[in-house]
Amino acid sequence: MVVLKRIRDSINVRTLDKVFQVSPTLEDRRIATLFGLQTIEHATITNIVTWIPPLEGWFKLNSDGSLGDDRGGYGALLRNSRDAFIIGIVGRLDLPSINLLELKAIEQGIWMAITTGVDKLWIESDSTTALAWVHGKGNAP
Question: What single string gives the DSSP state of each residue in 18-36?
């Protein structure tokens, strides 16, 4: 009991004015409570994401760019209105801007569509800035 009290006191001193998130298991909350730590539960939010097909006769280009600490990348995927995979591409490119990587993904996707004979293309991206630039809005680089 003396050892546990010393551990508890040490933890309380080291965690003064700090909040730590523990996993939501009952055992983890019980252990935290034994040491006199306050736990806060956070609600889990689930978003359901679905792919919406284009109209019959159209093709959909899904594109994305990614920028990390030491590298950037992009990807594009072309599917028809029945969700069938047509062609895709991924690449690595060291660009200083996520918007430029998003544009590269869109550009590569458009080239894929052109080379496969697609003439009705729906472009979908999570970058509103890149899409605005494609549509001639805003100050594109």
Answer: ------S-HHHHHHHHHTT
